[in-house]
């Protein structure tokens, strides 16, 4: 088992035995379980009953478990555009490619065609938790939450709010928008009515919820002060549901926000002044934040979703994640489809690595010691799992294999030849060299290496899951 214990420390548990209870919680992790006798002893100590059904699974050489990946920012509705429209920066890109696509979701039938594909594809790529923007459309947004719930993905879903600087078909009237948002929130909360039967703690109650509604002002450019204020009020009324938006992604955007809110000091304060910046806020990008903005984010305990593929693809800039981390700001990774071209967090890991290298190389010309260190492998794994969990205030629920957390996990297989060609990349490494195997997976592996994807202890995707469920799909 490979998992992060802190930002710069990953733990490799060899010869481990992990128990998952009927609620999908990790009941025990035993180390150094070698030999049949010891295995039997541990199983009986924990009263694991094996009666006919296969309840014990042994990993073979070249296989290991990772915590599930957490995508803290993506736009489900933009999935059809992923990989295209790479020629324009944010504001022009929204106008030319993104708004026209999003307007298609006024038809529920279009959502019914696209959203199941999105959820299935993200699960297949190892995204056990996804934080989604849908669109302004109530029925389509409800449908996205329903699909995530049915497919067994842990999901945060937001019906987008926007009332200016967009085509007419995507502009809402504040009062109606708020009514619809509230009805969306009620609907999503109701999807999981038995959510906390077995729990009494506050965070545990939230953690066991599979789908969570998110308040989603698109960004300060497309929301008037009236809209932001109304959403801030809603955030007070529903004081345990998260808030998501975009923040300081692109220089023209930052300048436009200054123009739209001339008496507010900076972009971050626009959200803060409307009571939308707090410990439940998930802000995408955060590239051009001033020192005082970072200090405010830290003070409010809000966090940043780092979306490096998107930042490169639509030419937004390079986010200095090391600086955010040094400031003590919560950071997770996001794919930001379709600003980002790729659906998988493995891709986000690689682009986060590249972004940090670009910053490192330009941080000092000649003095190696002055260079900012690029993100290390343990740090990248942390951002993809625990960092996301912290950003979502689920650090006591998911993110690693601590006993008591829920079992959201990936069974990685670097050996079994599902499709022989890609697995050649693992040849030449001794199966027992787990750390190198893991590194290769993070930088060269793909979804063909994901044998099983588990959420809350249930297998919900992966090569093996697809194979077993072929007849039904
Ligand atoms: N800012 C406002 N809307 C969007 C969007 O859809 N994608 C990205 N990347 N940034 C945004
Ligand atoms: Fe985005």
How does the SSE layout of this entry go?
Layout: E1 2-6, E2 9-12, E3 17-20, E4 26-30, H1 36-45, E5 63-67, E6 69-75, H2 90-103, H3 108-124, E7 127-133, H4 138-151, E8 154-158, E9 160-161, H5 174-191, H6 202-208, E10 211-213, E11 216-217, H7 225-237, E12 243-247, H8 251-260, H9 267-273, E13 281-285, H10 291-300, E14 303-306, H11 308-313, H12 321-326, E15 330-333, H13 345-363, H14 377-391, E16 409-413, H15 420-423, H16 434-444, E17 450-455, E18 458-461, H17 463-468
Parallel strand pairs: 6-7, 7-8, 8-10, 9-11, 12-13, 13-14, 14-15
Antiparallel strand pairs: 1-2, 3-4, 5-16, 16-17, 17-18
The structure holds guanine (GUN) and fe (iii) ion (FE).
Residues 75, 90, 94, 98, 218-219, 246, 249, 310, 336, 339 line the site of guanine.
What is the averaged pLDDT score?
A: 93
Q: Any ligands, ions or cofactors bound here, and which?
A: guanine, fe (iii) ion
CATH homologous superfamily assignment of the largest domain: Metal-dependent hydrolases
- Return residue spans where pLDDT drops below 50 for at least 5 consecutive residues: 197-207
What structural category do the secondary elements indicate? alpha/beta
CATH architecture of the largest domain: Alpha-Beta Barrel
Q: Treating each run of at least 4 consecutive H or I residues as one helix, how many helices?
A: 17
Within the CATH hierarchy, at the fold level, what is the topology of the largest domain? TIM Barrel
DSSP helix fraction: 25-40%
Task: Count the domains.
Answer: 2
**Strand arrangement, major sheet:** 5-16-17-18
State the total count of DSSP E strands. Answer: 18
Main sheet makeup: 4 strands, antiparallel
**N/C terminus separation:** 31 Å
The first-level CATH class of the largest domain is given as Alpha Beta
GO molecular function: guanine deaminase activity; zinc ion binding
InterPro entries: Amidohydro-rel (IPR006680), Guanine_deaminase (IPR014311), Metal-dep_hydrolase_composite (IPR011059), Metal_Hydrolase (IPR032466), Metallo-dep_hydrolases (IPR051607)
Protein name: Guanine deaminase
Cofactor: Zn(2+)
